[in-house]
Write a structure and sequence with these properties.
- The structure holds two protein chains of two kinds.
- By secondary structure, chain A is of the alpha/beta class.
- In chain A, about 25% of the residues lie in helices and about 20% in strands.
- Chain A folds into two domains: about 1-120, Rossmann fold, CATH 3.40.50.2300; about 135-210, no CATH class.
- In chain A, the strands form two sheets. Chain A has a four-stranded parallel β-sheet with strand order 3-2-4-5, with helices on both faces.
- The longest helix of chain A has 17 residues, at about 40-55.
- Helices cover about 40% and strands about 15% of the residues of chain B.
- Chain B has helices at about 15-20, 40-50, 70-80, 95-105, 135-150, 180-190, 205-215, 235-245, 255-260, 275-300, 320-325; strands at about 25-30, 55-60, 85-90, 110-115, 165-170, 195-200, 225-230, 305-310.
- In chain B, helix 5 runs parallel beside helix 6 (about 180-190), helix 9 runs antiparallel to helix 10 and helix 10 (about 275-300) packs across helix 11.
- Chain B is built from eleven helices and eight strands.
- By secondary structure, chain B is α/β, with parallel strands linked by helices.
- Chain B has a single domain (about 15-235, about 305-325), classed as TIM Barrel.
- The chains are: A alpha/beta, B alpha/beta.
- The complex binds iron/sulfur cluster (2 copies).
- The site of one iron/sulfur cluster (SF4) has 13 residues of chain A, from helix 7.
């Protein structure tokens, strides 16, 4: 899922400084699960903004609402009226949620309350870690299901650099070395021979390097939309 | 076998390639470009190294700190009559920049190339930079070998005219993790087209022997020239720091104790109690011992089957190279 974390309150305050009426919009999907922008966080954010701006002597009207999925336009219709009534919408969705609202509400001023961090999973209570960089051409089948693009600090494809030490990456002791993980897994499964092949340069065109990406599925298109 | 340029049997015709091919025990050095645009720094260091090494590595933004480019500095080294080994990392360039820079480097007279992953930029002086890592070092080795041998760019497009004919090398850290994979990874580098390998600094001879046994068993020492990395220790503190902080750098305690022992006359005194002269004398004692240890290491390394030379890393202490090479009985350098 998409992992995000809240921006510091001072930054959020600056983003909504010009507005009198603020609508905080949470999202019920990824950011709820990672405790960054669900119903609870939206309520706390709204209360904090109310309190902080009151203390500053210019108390704002702050309301909050949560949609099930901020990244799909159909879920946004239900908040159209509320959005129309405020000066600024503070999205607690991921970067996609913010943009979905911008595209749906052409007159609304929408600002992000979160930093969208990565695609990952919770590894322990209160800990999330990156797992995928959405490179568009998945090679997990070569690496025993451990992603060197997202998890090796240098996205190496042919094995560990010289910085791998005691299982962690050279960048710091908190980061496991992806290639140590790959090596251990393939070696325990008796498939080390897979690491001996030279992996050719990656086609990064399917990643962000090829420009903004889009998928069109003709099988799912409606007849009216066909050219 | 790749086509022979000018029918002379060499891949690049570089001095380093010739020295190795003629079976001489090779000596390479290292020259760290300055953090400024002063070419004189390069000339001075080149003068210290000339005649003592067969070729010298020009580091590429070493430890991710901005310095004069390896190719720019390499051009000066060529003017000085010393042979450069251009280091190139995958951190700062994509495949377009790598290829175009190498065409330029060849045109400027450079003939050796060392392909590296590169230290992560978080270590250096621009930790907020975006990195590249379009290719990894093995893919870079393959790309430049194919440019040389088949006259194609990485994209597969053939080109006409002069191809860049580099003697292509790679680095290997024999004691980095996972240690069992290191000789196999070396094999991949050879398969990709590497002709020579320079290793991380070796202080632990027994461990290096074990590594070399594996390398010989894999038949790699017959396919690639292995230059063992060596370097003079400057002080026991520096030795301890390197041992604790540099991945894959193993320094036996006994060597650190030897370094400490020569500093014994000044031991037990606090920093403030030592006069300037004391400190100077202590440094000199450490440096003499560091050079001595380095010479002994080279002598032991020479005895190991399958080692084709040494790569002396004495960055910011280029003066040490001559006494080391001389002390190891490796002067004069062969003229081939
Ligand atoms: S290989 Fe690409 S798609 Fe697969 S997990 Fe890694 S980044 Fe994601
Ligand atoms: S130490 Fe491991 S994870 Fe870190 S850059 Fe090197 S190979 Fe990648």
């Amino acid at each position: 899922m998409i992992i995000a974390e809240q921006k510091p309150l001072a930054e959020v305050k600056a983003l909504v400084a010009d507005a009198q009426k603020v609508l905080v919009v949470g999202c019920g999907t990824c950011v709820t699960v990672c405790f960054a922008g669900g119903a609870r966080e939206a309520a706390i954010m709204a209360a904090s903004l109310r309190m902080a701006t009151q203390l500053d002597g210019n108390g704002k009207e702050v309301a909050e609402v949560v949609v099930q999925r901020q990244c799909e336009w159909e879920y946004l219709d239900e908040i159209a009226q509320q959005v129309g009534e405020v000066d600024v919408v503070l999205s607690l969705g991921c970067g996609i949620g913010v943009q979905a609202m911008v595209e749906h509400f052409s007159n609304a001023w929408v600002v992000p309350g979160l930093n969208t961090s990565f695609l990952g999973l919770p590894t322990e209570q209160g800990v999330w870690a990156e797992r995928c960089a959405a490179c568009g051409d998945c090679i997990l089948g070569l690496t025993g299901g451990i992603c060197p693009i997202a998890r090796c600090s240098k996205s190496l494809l042919n094995g560990p650099c010289g910085g791998s030490e005691n299982g962690h990456c050279e960048i710091n002791a908190e980061v496991p070395c992806a290639w140590q993980l790959i090596y251990d897994r393939l070696s325990s499964l008796g498939k080390l021979d897979r690491l001996l092949e030279i992996q050719p340069p990656k086609n990064w065109r399917t990643a962000r390097d090829g420009g903004p990406r889009k998928i069109v599925r003709p099988d799912l298109r409606l007849p009216a939309e066909e050219e | 076998m790749p086509p022979e340029p000018n029918g002379n049997g060499y891949l690049s015709g570089s001095n380093l390639e010739k020295v190795l091919k003629h079976g001489h025990f090779a000596v390479t050095g290292e020259l760290g470009p300055p953090q400024n645009a002063d070419g004189e720094v390069i000339r001075k260091k080149a003068k210290l190294l000339k005649g003592n090494c067969d070729a010298v590595n020009l580091t590429d933004n070493q430890t991710a700190i901005v310095r004069m480019s390896s190719i720019g500095a390499g051009a000066i080294v060529v003017q000085e009559g010393l042979e450069p080994i251009i280091q190139m990392t995958c951190r700062d360039r994509n495949r377009l920049a790598m290829q175009s820079d190498l065409l330029g480097a060849y045109a400027l007279g450079m003939r050796n190339l060392l392909c590296l992953s590169g230290d992560h930029q978080t270590f250096g002086n621009h930790p907020t930079a975006k990195n590249v890592f379009d290719l990894d070092s093995i893919q870079m080795v393959q790309m430049v070998s194919l440019m040389r041998d088949t006259k194609v760019f990485q994209c597969g497009e053939a080109f006409k005219g002069q191809e860049p004919r580099f003697f292509v090398g790679a680095a290997e850290s024999p004691f980095a993790n996972p240690i069992e994979f290191r000789p196999l990874r070396l094999g991949k580098k050879v398969k990709a087209g590497a002709s020579f390998i320079q290793t991380q600094l070796i202080y632990d001879i027994e461990a290096f022997k074990t590594f070399m046994t594996k390398v010989r068993e894999l038949g790699l020492s017959e396919k690639v020239y292995i230059l063992a990395g060596v370097g003079p220790l400057k002080s026991p503190t520096m030795a301890r720091y390197m041992k604790d902080n540099v991945p894959g750098l193993w320094i036996p305690d006994q060597l650190i104790e030897r370094m400490a022992a020569v500093g014994a006359p000044w031991a037990g005194k606090s920093k403030d109690e030592l006069t300037k002269e004391d400190k100077k004398a202590r440094s000199a004692a450490w440096q003499t011992e560091g050079i001595k240890i380095c010479i002994e290491l080279i002598q032991q390394i020479r005895e190991i089957e399958g080692v084709a030379g040494v790569h002396i890393m004495a960055i910011e202490w280029e003066e040490a190279v001559k006494p080391i090479v001389e002390g190891a009985g490796l002067l004069p350098r062969p003229i081939v």
